[in-house]
C-alpha cells in the first residue's frame, strides 16, 4: 500500500486517501452556466479512479465576475440543484466533492465595467477601475451566498480561489495591490477580503462547513522573502480561522520547463516546517507515483493533481498498478485546445480522435 492511499482526518473532513483533483476548468459546461452530461461523465470517471477528493473548476459567484463562457454558475438559486447530481456521483465512490468558487475581477468576460484592486490599464486598450469598499462587501456577500447554495446541495465544502491572478489573489499579492485603505498595505489588510468571506461563510453555514483556500506560493513582486513571510502569517491566520486545508499553486506553472517536476515543493516544505499544524496540499508538476509519495513523505498532508488528470483521468489507478509516469508533456495546450476542438483538452486525446477519423 502506498503512502498516498492512507486515510486523512482533517477538522471536519474524513478523506479516504491523500489525493486531490485540483480545480481545473473543464470547458464542458453550457454557456447558460449549467453542467452538461459530459461534465457529469468527467466526474464519474475521476471518482472511480482512485481520488479521495474532487475540487471542481472555478464556479462563478457573480454575473459580473464570470471568467469563461462555459463556466459553471452558482450566483443564483436556480444553479443549486445541478450540484446534487455531481455530489451523488462522487459520494457513490466515497469521494469528497468540493466546488471552487471564484470572481474573475478584471479578467471577467462580457463586462465593460471591469473592476480591480486598484485602477489600472489592461490589455487591448481596456481599463479597470478600483473597487469601492461597498463593492468589496457586495462581492464578499456573493461568495457567502454561493457557499450557502452549495451547502444546501450536499457539497462537502468550498474552496476559495485566491490564486492565478483572479480577484482574491490580486488582493493578496503586492504585485497588484497598491491600495491605501483597510484592504491594502500589510498582509493583514491584503487578506482582509478573504478573511471576511471566510467568516461570513462560517456564520451563514456553520463553523463545521469546510472552507479551503487555494493560494500562490510565490509572487512576481521583487520581495520574494517578504512574500514568504506573508504566507507564514496567512497560514497562521488560516489555522486560527479554522480553514480546513490550504492548497498551494504558483504564478509561473505554465512557464516551468517541460522536464520539471514538483515545482513548488521546496517552498511549501519550508512553509510546512514553519506552520506544521496547518494542513497543506501541493499542485504543480506531479507526474508519477514517486512524485506523489515524495510530497507526502515531506510532511505535506495531501497531493493535488491537475494536468496529469486532464491527460489521463485514470492516472492514479495506472500509477498504483505499476504504470509509467504521466504522459502529460506540460505543453499547456489544454488551455487553448478546447476552443478549437470542443470537448477535447489534451493533445494526446486529440491525436487519438484524429487517427480514428483518418481510418474511417
Describe the structure.
β11, α8 (265-274) and β12 form a beta-alpha-beta unit. The longest helix has 20 residues, at 133-152. Strands 3-4-5-9-10-11-12-13 form an 8-stranded parallel β-barrel, surrounded by 6 helices. A 3-stranded mixed beta sheet has the order 6-8-7, with no helix packed on it. It has helices spanning 37-47, 82-91, 133-152, 167-172, 187-190, 192-205, 224-241, 265-274, 289-297, 307-311, 315-320, 337-340, 347-359; strands at residues 8-9, 14-15, 19-21, 53-60, 96-102, 115-116, 120-121, 127-130, 158-162, 211-216, 245-249, 280-283, 302-305. The chain is of the alpha/beta class and 360 residues long. Helices cover 36% and strands 15% of the residues. The radius of gyration is 19 Å and the shape is globular.
Secondary structure: number of strands: 13
Strand order of the largest sheet: 3-4-5-9-10-11-12-13
Beta-sheet strand percentage? 15-25%
Summed up, the helix count is 13
**Global outline:** globular
Distance between the termini: 44 Å
How would you state the average pLDDT, rounded? 94
| Category by helix and strand content | alpha/beta
Q: Write down the oligomeric state.
A: single chain
Radius of gyration: 19 Å
Largest sheet: 8 strands, parallel, barrel
Write the layout of secondary structure elements.
Elements: E1 8-9, E2 14-15, E3 19-21, H1 37-47, E4 53-60, H2 82-91, E5 96-102, E6 115-116, E7 120-121, E8 127-130, H3 133-152, E9 158-162, H4 167-172, H5 187-190, H6 192-205, E10 211-216, H7 224-241, E11 245-249, H8 265-274, E12 280-283, H9 289-297, E13 302-305, H10 307-311, H11 315-320, H12 337-340, H13 347-359
Helix pairs in contact: 1-2, 3-6
Amino acid at each position: 500500500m502506498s503512502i498516498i492511499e492512507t486515510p486523512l482526518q482533517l477538522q471536519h473532513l474524513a478523506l479516504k486517501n491523500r489525493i486531490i483533483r485540483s480545480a481545473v476548468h473543464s470547458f464542458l459546461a453550457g454557456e447558460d452556466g449549467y453542467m452538461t452530461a459530459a461534465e457529469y461523465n468527467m466526474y464519474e470517471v475521476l471518482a472511480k479512479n482512485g481520488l479521495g477528493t474532487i475540487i471542481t473548476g472555478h464556479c462563478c459567484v457573480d454575473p459580473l465576475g464570470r471568467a469563461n463562457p462555459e463556466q459553471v454558475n452558482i450566483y443564483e438559486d436556480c444553479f443549486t440543484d445541478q450540484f446534487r447530481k455531481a455530489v451523488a456521483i462522487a459520494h457513490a465512490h466515497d469521494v469528497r466533492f468540493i466546488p471552487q468558487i471564484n470572481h474573475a475581477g478584471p479578467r471577467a468576460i462580457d463586462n465593460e465595467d471591469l473592476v480591480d484592486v486598484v485602477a489600472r490599464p489592461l490589455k487591448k486598450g481596456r481599463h479597470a477601475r478600483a473597487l469601492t469598499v461597498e463593492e468589496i462587501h457586495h462581492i464578499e456577500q456573493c461568495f457567502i451566498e454561493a457557499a450557502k447554495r452549495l451547502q444546501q446541495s450536499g457539497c462537502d465544502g468550498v474552496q476559495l480561489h485566491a490564486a492565478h491572478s483572479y480577484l482574491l489573489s490580486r488582493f493578496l499579492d503586492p504585485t497588484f495591490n497598491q491600495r491605501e485603505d483597510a484592504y491594502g498595505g500589510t498582509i493583514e489588510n491584503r487578506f482582509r477580503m478573504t478573511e471576511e468571506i471566510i467568516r461570513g461563510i462560517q456564520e451563514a453555514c456553520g463553523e463545521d462547513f469546510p472552507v479551503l483556500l487555494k493560494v500562490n506560493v510565490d509572487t512576481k513582486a521583487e520581495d520574494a522573502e517578504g512574500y514568504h513571510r506573508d504566507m507564514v502569517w496567512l497560514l497562521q491566520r488560516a489555522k486560527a480561522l479554522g480553514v480546513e486545508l490550504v492548497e498551494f499553486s504558483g504564478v509561473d506553472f505554465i512557464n516551468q520547463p517541460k522536464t520539471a517536476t514538483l515545482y513548488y515543493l521546496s517552498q511549501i516544505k519550508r512553509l510546512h516546517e514553519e506552520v506544521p499544524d496547518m494542513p497543506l496540499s501541493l499542485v504543480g508538476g506531479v507526474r508519477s507515483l514517486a512524485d506523489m509519495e515524495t510530497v507526502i513523505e515531506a510532511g505535506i498532508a495531501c497531493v493535488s493533481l491537475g494536468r496529469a488528470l486532464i491527460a489521463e483521468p485514470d492516472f492514479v489507478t495506472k500509477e498504483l498498478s505499476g504504470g509509467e509516469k504521466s504522459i502529460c508533456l506540460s505543453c499547456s495546450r489544454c488551455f487553448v485546445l478546447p476552443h478549437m476542438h470542443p470537448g477535447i483538452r489534451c493533445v494526446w486525446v486529440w491525436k487519438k480522435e484524429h487517427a480514428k477519423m483518418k481510418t474511417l
